[in-house]
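Support request, please re-run this one:
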Amino acid sequence: MAFVMAIGFLIYPFKKNENWLWRSCDIILAILGVVSCIYIVRAFETLAFRQGAPNPLDIVFGLILLAVLLELGRRVVGWILPILCVLGSLYALLGSHLPGILAHRGLPMRIFINTVSLTTEGIFGTPLAVSATYVFMFVLFGAAAGAARSSSTLRGAASEK
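Re-run finished. Output below.
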């Protein structure tokens, strides 16, 4: 995921012009994403032993990872994905303040960050597994088809009526 974040911020810049200020913001976001992923990989053993009891550094890197992923999602997909993620997060965090059937006990911020960013029940679970297997296979097929020059044949067949 660190590689995808680094490449994502370089392929989808904040502004299309080559202003050094905006480009440096892209590079800083890419570095923050990579560093947060490296922290989680390097601290995996201690995270496993402290499961459910994150320390302040875990929370900081988890928040950085979530913020960077939301921004990258906004750049790649548009506003709808980050908005849905923020609404789901707000529902999980503020459920005790909701009325009637929508109300639930709510989650403390540290438990939410721990679950979403540091365990396999969140970002490093199903979403990453799906993108690492199925999406990768389609990208690999597309690259192989392009290298074999069969992509124009496939596009022609798909566009025929």
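Residues 15 and 21 are 10 Å apart (CA to CA). Helices lie at 2-11, 20-42, 44-49, 56-76, 80-93, 109-118, 126-147, 151-159.
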